Amino acid sequence: MDKYRASRVKSAAAWALAFVFAIVATVFAVMPFVFMVLNSFKEKFEMLQKGVFALPQELYLDNYIGVMAGNFGVFFRNSVLVLAVSLTLLLFVSACASYPLSKMHFGLADPIYGVIVACMSIPLHITLIPVFRMMQNLHLYNTIWALPGPYIAFGVPISVFILTSFMKGIPDEIIESAEIDGCNKYGMFFRIMLPLSKPGLSTLAIYNGVNMWNEFSFAYTLTQDAAHRTLPLAVWEYRGQYSMNTPMIMAVLTLTVLPMIVLFAVAQDKLVKGMTAGAVKG
Amino acid sequence: MKRTHVTVLGKRALAVALGVVCAVGLAACGSGSGSGAAATTAASGGGQTAAAPAPGGGDDKTIEFWHIATEGGHKVKVEAAIEKFNSTTQSGYKVVGVPIQNDTYKEKLVIAMSSGECPDAYVSWSGGPMNEYINSGFARELDALFDATPNKDKYLEGALAQGRLDGKLYGIPYHNTSISGVFYNTEIFAKYGLEEPKTLEDLEKICDTLLENDIIPFALANGSKWTGSMYFMSLAARKGGLEPFQKAVAGEGTFEDAAFIYAGEKIQEWVKKGYFPEGVNSLSEDDGQAKQLMYQEAAGMLLCGSWYTGTFSDDSKEFYAKVNWFSFPEITGSGADPKIQIGTVGDQFISMNCDGDKLKAAVEFATIFSDDDMIQVGIDNGTVPPFKGVVDQLTDPCTVKIMQAAADAPEIQLWYDQYLPPAVATAHLDGSQEIFGLTKTPEQAAKMMQDAMAKYNSESK
Amino acid sequence: MTKTATTSLQRKRARETHVAAAVFLAPVVVLLAVFIFYPIFDTFHISTFKWNGIDANPVFIGLGNWAALLKDGAFWIAFRNNITIMVCSILVQIPLGLAMATFLDFGGTKKLNVFKILWFIPLLMSSVAIGFLFTYALATNGGIVSTISRFLGGKNIDLLGNPRLALFTVIMVIAWQFTPFYMVYCMAAYTNIPMEVFEASIIDGATKPQYFRHIALPLLMPSLKSAAILSMVGSLKYFDLIYVMTGGGPGTSTELMATYMYKQSFKNFNMGYGSAVAAGMFLLITCMALATMRLINQKEG
């Protein structure tokens, strides 16, 4: 009994300590976001004079009104479209590639895996000129359809890397029993591998989704007119050679990040369900 | 149920995926086949330029114009000029403006040029980068066409000089006149009985007085590097005039000249005395950390380009009313002309990459900025367009004072970091930042710069 | 069943496997060929020229840029900085991410969801906002760190302007941004541990720390190893926040291979040399990543 109680006390103490750390971590994680939002409610002179970490003097909404009056809606729509197309295709082709690399035995598996891993180490900026030229030749330059190609390609190496190791963890017995049931390789992919990879896929969806949503270099290299730009370029209109309207930029960035937070908050419940489903079967 | 759903979705996705992949793959083959080997960026890119003089997408009657007027008054002005040209021109051409944000502009221009997609007209800051564009064949010589324009006599000679290379005009100035000088808070000066300095000793006395009263003498955010370079340029020019610089660039002198060493030593002396904010190399000009010190009245003076008149008044009219300006004071006994100024007359220059009638129309467009109504738009938006007679139209007292100094200058040297070949400019900026950080001696920084200059000169021969 | 029948069946199976593998791998291979192999090939090619990036006539100089690269002190300083970032990132981000995921996993589900969402926010924010806010938060005078230091009786601390501290300061900001990724990553790894394993160990009388050390950690190890590889490659090609916050300065104290490559290629009109830097960087990172993977796998075997 004593031993039991002692362990209960110890456990409660450990939880209390963990909770304190969790609160501290939360403060660290959220502070910059909070100040981003607070500064978006300031007038630009106020922000500099009273300091970035002061509270806004009043609820100043002009920044948001100004942003909404601009091209924000167009940028938002473009970003959503590019994200939806790129992310879907990325996850699908990555899962396709990870399946043979993790579960089929053939001689080239290791070399191909090595090459794909090597692709992770390419610095993005050296691809700007070749990709720009390619999109010019394809007549995709200055349309949002120039973006999915590079977005998918740059997400592939890391996604295949993660998914392959994830799929390796799926027990061989499941695959064997499906094979005995007469399931071929293609059916196997759709019926067994894809559903069982949900936890890995959802992690990748989050990671790649965030990257694509905030992607900047390809976006400004491959688009030109306001009608074809994505959200990360929305700050341009508030930033000149010698001046910049920081509170307005903070308003743009707040509006950019909010949908992602909401999406994560709403979707993570479903993600957890997907994850546990995978875990139970596994 | 769920499984079938996944399968159908999967098949549809597969179809789309394969379509995209095939299209992209074919295109890649197509783009590669033009030049034989797949990887001949350099050769094929340049070749396209020579072969196809009408870049920027087919339409012959469109002049594609790249600029950085994404925001504020600058945007208003450029849009007004494009509008005016398109509605009044007899040339049959139309200008299509492409605004690109300043921070990414140079990079995007390089990408476009290297792919043979250089726009018909584009802005640059003249100096080193413009020379690269010219030497690579992306800028036309404009003298004959420019001399035929009705407004040619309105241009300030100093402005045209900065748009030339080897005596030929490649860039038409259009935007602003900015020289470096010292802005100060008149209330703070009055409070401590301070007056505008005549000499460097006067300036140092002002700094000491401010320090005694817990006011930072100079607001400076040197994380951006070019901001600290202004002190270096000003001190070097007051110590030795412009000759040491011009000789060093030409390869006849050196950046290890006494004037540059003096500038470095003076800066380090000031750093040690506490004339600059703490952690000066970590502060960011882009994020407004220098002007913040002025607005909070924590600092008394700010040495920077005179575009700051616009910055101040744009942020707060009330604050701007407290601000006045003086030219960097002379160093007694140096023998250098204290009327020399550092800065840009024009700020931005329009270069052309087109020929024939289109080039003529493009020049017509570039000179539209010197029309009286366009000048007025510029003045209304807080800039001083680089044209004769503009000074007389100015009403803002601070701006008048600055422009008088610019008009009195026997010579205006373009900012080092824009004038120098880019690699040398980088060496200068890095070295000057390390001088402020006390991590390099003035001699070491000078040697870094001189090595870069010597390397450039030996390679370009 | 005769021997020949077996082998022909095996052969048929092997052929089927090859076809299926080819079909599944084709889209990715094509994509990578177009957007990654081609640019890499291009980069190696350009690295043999002296070229300002725009001129129609680059000058072939063979291995001149490569010879210069080997002797270029600035590049090797950048490489060293990358290594520092890599080591710190692996040591800070992965353990922290694991700790956060463990907390969420052990605590059950619903109640702690708030933490999960809040902890995830740093990864969502754009580098522009992070750069701006941290520049002010880390300012020597009036910044948050200095204010705390003064409150505790210390002096102002110049975190970003002091060459000795700047790199570590940025490393902390990078860790702040990327730890949530490893949190999500470890959470996915946790879901792969079957519920029965946890229940069985608790029935056997294991405390939660014991379960973590002896059961969960070994099962998470493969995922943690992959995470280390990811962190390694990510750190070695890092660019974003450094470029926004310090631009490589003061001096060369936060210069990285990627920022150095960018400066040479796009700012200094030195595309040929910048390509050599990029290609060198590619070779270094790939070799290090593949060597590490081999090492890890050997230990497993």
Would you mind describing this structure in some detail?
The complex is a heterotrimer of chains A (282), B (461) and C (301). Chain A has 12 helices and no strands. With 282 residues, chain A is mostly helical. Chain A folds into 2 domains: 38 residues; 220 residues, MetI-like fold (Orthogonal Bundle). The C terminus of chain A is likely disordered. Chain B folds into 2 domains: 167 residues, 3-Layer(aba) Sandwich (D-Maltodextrin-Binding Protein, domain 2), CATH 3.40.190; 213 residues, Periplasmic binding protein-like II (D-Maltodextrin-Binding Protein, domain 2), CATH 3.40.190. In chain B, helix 10 crosses helix 12, helix 12 packs antiparallel against helix 22 and helix 21 packs antiparallel against helix 22. Chain B is globular. With 301 residues, chain C is mostly helical. Chain C has a two-stranded antiparallel sheet. In chain C, a hairpin with an 8-residue loop joins strand 1 and strand 2. The longest helix of chain C is centred in the N-terminal third of the chain and has 44 residues. The model of chain C has no long low-confidence stretch (mean pLDDT 89). Classes of the chains: A mainly alpha (282), B alpha/beta (461), C mainly alpha (301). Chains in contact: A-B, A-C, B-C. At the A-C interface, helix 1, helix 4, helix 5, helix 6 and helix 7 of A face helix 1, helix 3, helix 4, helix 5 and helix 7 of C.
